[in-house]
Here is the input.
Amino acid sequence: MTSPASNPALELENVYLTLPAASGPVEILKGVSFRAMPGESVAVVGPSGSGKSSLIAVATGIERATKGEVKLLGDSLTGKSEDGLARLRRGRVSLVFQSFHLLGTMNAFDNVRAPLEIAGLANVDQLAKSGLEAVGLGARMDHFPGQLSGGERQRVAVARALASNPAIVFADEPTGNLDRASGSMVADMLFAIARQRNATLVVVTHDMELARRANRIVEMSDGKIVS
Amino acid sequence: MSSGNANRAWLRIARRELAGGLGGFWIYLACLALGAWAIAAAGSITSSFSHGLELQSRELLGGDAHVQVSQREATEEELAWLKERGTVSAAAQADLMARKGPAVRQIDVRGIDSAFPLLGRFTFNEGAPSLPDILAKKNGIWGVAASQSLLDILKIKIGDTISLGEFEVEVRALLKREPDRIGEPGVFEPRVIVSMDALRETGQLSQGRLFRTAYRLLLKPEYAPTFEQDLKDKWGDAGLRYRAPEDAVDGLDRLLDMLNTFMSVIGIAALVAGGVGVAQATSSFLESRIDSIAALKALGADAGTIRAAYALQLGVLAGVGALVGIILGALSPLLLKLATGDLIPLPTDISLYPWPLFKAFTLTMLAALMFVATPLGRARATPPAALFRREGGEGMGKSPPLERAIAAVAGILLVIVAMIGTVRPLMVLGLLLGAGVAWGVLVFAAWLIKRAAAFAAKRSRGYLRLALANLGGPGSLAPVVAPALGLGLALMSLIAVVQTNLLGQLKDTAPANAPSVIFRQIPFEAGADFDKLMAEFGVKTTDSKQYQRAPFILGRVISLKGEELDEKKVPPEERWVTRGETAMTVLGKRPPEVDVREGKWWPENYSGPLLLSAEEGAAKGLGLKLGDKVGFRIYGREVEGEIASIRKVDWGGFGPNMAFILSPGTMEAAKPFSTAIVIVEPAKEDALVREVANRWPGALAFQLRRTLETAADLFQQVALAVTALASVVTTAGVLVLFGAFAAAARKRRRESALLKVFGATRPGILLLYASEFALAAFAAAVLGAIMGIAAAHPIVIFVFEATWRFDFAPVLAVGGIAVLAAAAGGAMVGWATLSRAPARVLRSA
Here is the structure.
């Protein structure tokens, strides 16, 4: 495994994704090629159904490409087992979802702490605490998701994504479920912390204002990158 | 929305949702069907037996009336009086020693006259001669029909000759069935049927011998209505005891009532344990509909419409579950008959019994209402905004007071309905209250477990921390699994502990302390020779802990405190003292093991008016205190004695375990037979019994140690059956556990996908869920074991009056199986969550 600074953090080469559906197989990605360099922030924009979220799924290995090559942090995902992919993500690859996806049975602290624990990192309590403090939720660590507002939940999700100092962070419509003020605050935090920790940031969004914060904007349409 | 529209709206919503299928409702249906089945089956099966017994009660009694005398035959005058009133048949019951070569065994001998049986008939082996031919005296030898058990014990076959006490008989048939076997109390195996003339001829029915004679009558119609009263008026003082056809099934009816009560309570306990599953399924269902509910409310549907729409659906489904249960319950008598064949020797009347079915249906619907009302209230009361704010865990708020009141009223009605129609309403109430208290404790304990898990999570690491956090957080398994599984496991532990204690008592304590052999009918004059023989076999005849011999007297209690005995006033559990002849002895010196609790033992050489030492339970049951008078009829003579002391008897131990011990000086003149209780080395036991049988053929030897071992085996079988019945509650708990597995598999799919995103491997996720479920089951098992042991202790000490002993093995086995099963189920939950790619799970969540 090699990932010198000059090598891409993420590299997709002619990637296809076909998923089964009731009406027959649907081709979601149609030969996508894409790169993101270490420390770079890239916004992927495009209309609904253009394949933006699927691009993230394939890039992180939580969905297997039907065809093509995906390299994440220098490792090819092709042929890796599900557990192998999971181990690759540990502590180095993070995701922020539009619908937060916090663990409802755990409080904010444990939500941030769980991935750190799985990654086998040291000082997980301290990392989780600083992660929550970084998003301004130091006082709400014992709150469960049901006791937090939408903006607060997404801030917990951002803290969870960044607490392990990952090499690459994927954010799928991170402000899509939030009002303008909350969305803006979450976006500020996401970009600031990613930049501060020199993490690659791939953001999928409809929101051009959010997209413009990135170093580069990639546009998708009908399963292809068009610009 | 107008009220008319609203009415149509809830109906329309309910219809549409019901048309959507029963997905996720199988646990709901199964829990209710299981409880309904247990209650309906208990009622239907016991009704089929009760009706069967009722229909055959005359045959079971052997006639329209049954008159019994003990230790004698009816006098000519008595017999003439009976014969005037109908056709009479006589049968005598005695114990004798059966011998063939080295094999000796005390057996039950039934002597019958030529008219027996008046109703029904015997069944013998195929090709057996007719009954008169079997029993006739041929070439100077009487014939008998013997039970298979006797053939096995003596290793004989049909055609062989055996000794029966002091005479020889030829076995001419295998006795398979007696018409009145079930209705006759104290009928045991091994046994033979012999002619009554044979018993008479050989002196077995002479005074002082242990036997009883029963006369069965087919009454002439004109005498039937007043026969009982006429008998009492004419022969009330002569010791003639009357039994009617309904009495033939009296004991069995009580047993069936007990069985019905037990099974009904088991069924209700299953409904309560399964109720968690019902509540959980309801909550899951309503949470899955929460967006629809929120949308409907946002669009103007009022809380009443929401409640009515979902109450109707849940009510219809509860009705379906209850219906399935009662259909199975109604079929249960037939299924039991098909499954057991002739193994259960009770007559059945397989029919449809509406009352138990109606009761089971009502109880099930009330249980459903009790558990559905609260989550329904939570759903209808939750504001639309709050519905949209949920994220995992608990989406709905608290239930309003109205629904909580409905649940409480349903619970009270459930108890009232359960009590209606039972012969022991207070016992049902007590058992249900006990179950209710256990339930409350378990619910509280579940809350404690949740708090403890949350606390422990903060101090743990790795997957254990995740498992504990899940157990301590919202949507925790603890409030579901701990009460449901805990109740079932408590019951199983209770039975296992009681069983272990009693089996231990029967297998170890009693055989170690109790006599090995009880010899009876030792001739009065043989006393010294008998003692000598015992000494020759190594019995320390001077040690009262190994050997005791004393006169044995049978007498009937006829008066208490100077008033004629009214048996109806005696509690059923103490009627063994008054039902027939009770065994008594005469002792001068107090044996060391006699534990006098009240009063004083008489001096060793006492010779004054008759004094009595009464057993504690019998004294309490008969309402006797020190100084009270008790009257007996002994060998036709009436005597009265005064209670001088009250003893505690260790029924499993060595010593005079009798209701009454008499002071010396009154009964010796009658030259009663002696009884000896002996502890002898097991290796010498059979030889000793053989030698006694050779020297005193009329003496009886009851090998208690062997009987206790047999009783332990029998008890083990009974305990197995009770465990099987009680396992209904555990099944309900397991159903709830399965429901929890299924619900968890649905809920945890997203969690599992997220953990994979974070880098968790599949073995890690399986381990997480296995440990989470195992922890919940472990907590339930510990609680269940504690409650089971706590409930078993007073039962062992006070009900069975046994010595408490604790064996971890059965409790560990019950708990261990539960934990392992839960861990396996948890791993299956994990496996189920791993079936889809994380991206697809998260996209659809």
Observations:
- Chain A has seven helices and ten strands.
